[in-house]
């Protein structure tokens, strides 16, 4: 059985950043396991710019951003196993892996970092009636076909959902000569970043139809059209509002789901609100020595935030191996308050904090002109004014660690308060 200090599962932006940071902080034997044939993950098919503005202060494409970390990984001498599947993880941090050149192997890790990313919701997730013709794709699949394989998936496109990948693909397909007839959102607001709505839809005159959904796919061999209906306040189709739109392709951008089958197998506790592991301030899960970061924990808007979070996980994993991570001391439980869907991290050990605590969260609905209120055992310790908050954009707030050490709370909560309340 081969042994490593830190094994990172996933060679995307989260895994790359975590592995490099673990190596920098004293983990001598670091191994990255990636199921694809190359490192970089989803970044390799994201040929648009907008990456690296926070980390590198530069405007990079996805492959350029990935290349920076891949080069650093190679310079650090970190072991990589590509085209390799992790079959199982035990609570004792034993891994079973499989590939075509090593065959079946067992690895022993002093610490594991889960960085498997996420997957797209499919047609089955929303139960769209109709036949099963060719021409129905998730936005990410269409992105890979076009940007990496060179295939245009269709000429006349309808899109259901307003995730960021879908918004970007609406623009990309338009630039390639396809007609994007409309982008539909079941809710009364888009699910992606507002900058993507502006730059990818409005700038290209692509219609955005809020409170609309698809109730039937028409076509036998190939998609011939979709039946579109308006939705009510509960996002249910309104009878009698149906309208036929002719198209040859339907793209689905219905959101992302953290990839956590391996996490479940290892006994890691999951948060039902995020679908990802419950983690503490060091990004350690409920299983000692197993850490998690990136979209496997919760779906991020920006890869720069993934990198920051993953660096913390990699550093913590190295500290765990070197027995520098504090495991005792009082714990603070983080609870979502009014208007907050979830908060990450879920538990805080103040002794492991540096200068401040950064909490990431999403709100449940659209909140203009509001405040984030941070409370500890009914005492308000911080307020932050927000001009606009929406579920499609992740928010964050920083709290000085000195304040937490002084008040020593058992529970910390964050809630939204409108200005008029």
Question: Can you describe this structure?
Answer:
The protein is an alpha/beta fold and 421 residues long. Helix content is 21%, strand content 34%. The protein has helices spanning 13-24, 62-75, 139-149, 164-175, 194-201, 261-265, 303-321, 401-407, and strands at residues 2-9, 30-33, 79-81, 85-89, 94-99, 103-114, 118-120, 136-138, 156-160, 179-185, 208-210, 212-218, 225-230, 243-246, 249-252, 256-258, 290-292, 331-336, 340-344, 347-349, 356-363, 367-376, 379-389, 395-400, 411-418. Helix 1 runs parallel beside helix 7. The longest helix has 19 residues, at 303-321. The termini are far apart.
Gyration radius from CA atoms, angstroms:
22 Å
Beta-strand percentage range: 25-35%
Main β-sheet, in a few words? 7 strands, mixed
Number of domains in the coordinates? 3
Structural shape: globular
Question: TL;DR of this structure?
Answer:
The protein is an alpha/beta fold and 421 residues long.
């Amino acid at each position: 059985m081969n042994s490593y200090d830190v094994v990172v599962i996933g060679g995307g932006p989260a895994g790359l950043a975590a592995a490099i940071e673990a190596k920098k902080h004293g983990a001598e034997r670091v191994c990255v396991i990636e199921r694809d044939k190359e490192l970089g993950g989803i970044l390799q098919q994201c040929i648009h710019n907008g990456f690296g503005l926070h980390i590198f202060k530069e405007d990079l494409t996805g492959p350029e951003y990935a290349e920076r970390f891949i080069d650093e990984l190679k310079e650090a001498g970190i072991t990589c196993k590509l085209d390799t599947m992790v079959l199982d993880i035990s609570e004792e941090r034993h891994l079973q892996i499989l590939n075509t050149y090593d065959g079946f192997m067992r690895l022993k890790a002093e610490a594991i970092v889960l960085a498997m990313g996420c997957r797209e919701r499919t047609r089955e997730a929303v139960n769209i009636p109709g036949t099963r013709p060719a021409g129905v794709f998730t936005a990410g699949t269409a992105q890979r076909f076009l940007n990496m394989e060179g295939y245009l998936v269709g000429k006349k496109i309808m899109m259901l959902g307003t995730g960021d990948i879908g918004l970007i693909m609406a623009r990309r397909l338009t630039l390639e000569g396809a007609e994007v007839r409309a982008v539909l959102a079941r809710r009364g607001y888009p699910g992606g970043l507002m900058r993507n709505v502006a730059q990818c839809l409005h700038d290209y005159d692509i219609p955005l139809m809020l409170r609309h959904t698809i109730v039937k796919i028409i076509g036998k061999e190939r998609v011939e059209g979709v039946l579109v209906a308006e939705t009510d306040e509960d996002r249910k189709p309104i009878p009698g509002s149906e309208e036929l739109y002719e198209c040859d392709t339907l793209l689905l951008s219905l959101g992302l789901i953290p990839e956590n089958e391996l996490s479940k197998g290892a006994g890691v506790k999951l948060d039902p609100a995020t679908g990802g592991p419950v983690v503490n301030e060091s990004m350690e899960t409920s299983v000692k020595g197993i850490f998690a970061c990136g979209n496997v924990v919760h779906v991020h808007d920006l890869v720069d935030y993934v990198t920051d979070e993953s660096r913390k996980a990699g550093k913590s994993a190295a500290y765990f191996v070197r027995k520098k991570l504090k495991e005792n001391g009082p714990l603070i439980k983080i609870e979502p308050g009014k208007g907050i869907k979830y908060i990450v991290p879920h538990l805080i050990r103040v002794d492991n904090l540096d200068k401040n605590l950064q909490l990431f969260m999403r709100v449940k609905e659209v909140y203009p002109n509001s405040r984030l209120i941070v409370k500890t055992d009914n005492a308000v310790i911080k307020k932050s004014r927000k001009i606009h908050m929406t579920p499609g954009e992740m928010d964050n707030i920083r709290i000085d660690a000195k304040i937490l050490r002084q008040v020593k709370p058992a529970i910390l909560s964050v809630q939204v308060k409108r200005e008029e309340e």
